[in-house]
Amino acid sequence: MQSAHPPLPRHLQGVPVLQIFIAAFITQFCMGFEVLLRLNAASTIKHDFFDATNSLTSGAMIGEVLGVLFLGFAIANFVMSALVDSIGLRRTHVLSVILYLLGTLTLVSATPGSEHAYQLLWGGSLLQGLAWGSIEAALNPLVVTIYPTKKVPKLNLFHAAFALGMLIAAPACVVVEQFALGWRLQLGLVFIPACISLVLIARVKYPPSERVANGVSFGDMFKHTLTRPAFFLFLCAMFFTSAAELVPSSWIDLTLTKIVGIQGFWLVAFIYTVQIVVRLFTGFLNRHLGSSGILFFGCLFAFAGLALLSRAASPATGLFAALLFGMGTSVLWPTMLAGTSERFPQGGSLAIGLTASAGMLSTYTFMPIFGKLFDQAKISSAGGSAAFEALKEGTASFDRVMVDAAGSIFQAAALLPLVVVIFFAGAWLYDHRRKGNLNRNSQYVTSQAET
């Protein structure tokens, strides 16, 4: 009697796959947990550090501090994706978590009015980004290595940890605010799950990556990645899908509070709750749509959500728009990485890492742009710089200006997923036809064998 499960590949025999996945899951949880803690603290940091010096450019300055996280991610992911197999998946994992905590300590050491306040905020965010990029450079290839036949559903489940971290961070932010514990302690909460992940990592031995186990050389990894025109098309697509998810999310807490009448970061938590649910069903979606079909519908939902967010005027419309946005963006990042690994398996960690780097580089590119757009929109809505500076926070006039500026942000962001809808439609059609041809060829070979 045949086993219901195919035998494990040789490089996975005796490997504690579940324990490794749990350790990776908790680390990814830390990343999402800290991201929302940062987003919630952004308003306070903006007020304490930047509004007092120049309120006209404070949006751009906080955008730079938030955005450099993604620059660090892109740099580290680009470099480490080529080197992670040489350094070792486990060693990279451990050192990256430690670096992330050092970046957090740098952030919280900044004090308003000090000479190096901006440099500490910017530098701490950069260190966190470098660590995060290194973590993903190791863990994305690790997940596809331990689940070689379930890349799309398992990578989506792995990235559901990020969404879970965002969700758990929301009530943590409320507790910190209610007890006036301060933004420094808030950012420091990430030490708790991070230390747990370090303990778990110390208990397991990691397998070699899929690329190494399959005997693909370092040079062939570059060859099978950088000589494929289709790979660069997917890099361009990642540039827009990542920005469509991460840039608007980074501004929700700063803009939507005035629009929907509820705390903006609760909308972020709601969005990521939706993401957890959707990512649990990506195995089912992948069987029926494939990775390109999932990405096509994900972009459509993201566009609809952002378009509605730009017009949201009540909690009900805001939550419905956030629902659509969350459903769409939930599948974009992990499915892009899993789809890349499926299409370019010999590209190994390099193909996955370059795709992730393109995503974070786009976020770094667009974050300051949207910060400047917000500053320009609020000044224009107020009737000029002098008129805006004369407004008092909390007044009806001030709220109207912020509502108008927020609408401009989300209206512009809605164009990002729309750009790649046609590309994914074409990829889906191509995959569908190729699958049909493979099935027909298989049926033909079977019929010939029977005769």
UniProtKB/TrEMBL annotation:
Protein name: MFS transporter
One Pfam family hit: MFS_1
Stated family: Belongs to the major facilitator superfamily.
Membrane-crossing residue ranges in chain numbering: 20-39, 59-80, 92-110, 130-148, 160-181, 187-204, 225-244, 264-282, 294-313, 319-338, 350-370, 409-430
Assigned GO CC terms: endomembrane system; membrane
Keywords from the named record: Membrane, Transmembrane, Transmembrane helix, Transport
Subcellular location: Endomembrane system
Membrane topology: Multi-pass membrane protein
Domain of life according to the entry: Bacteria
MF terms in GO: transmembrane transporter activity
Residue ranges annotated for the Major facilitator superfamily (MFS) profile domain, each copy included: 20-429
InterPro entries documented for this protein: MFS (IPR011701), MFS_dom (IPR020846), MFS_trans_sf (IPR036259), MFS_Transporter (IPR051788)
Main location: membrane
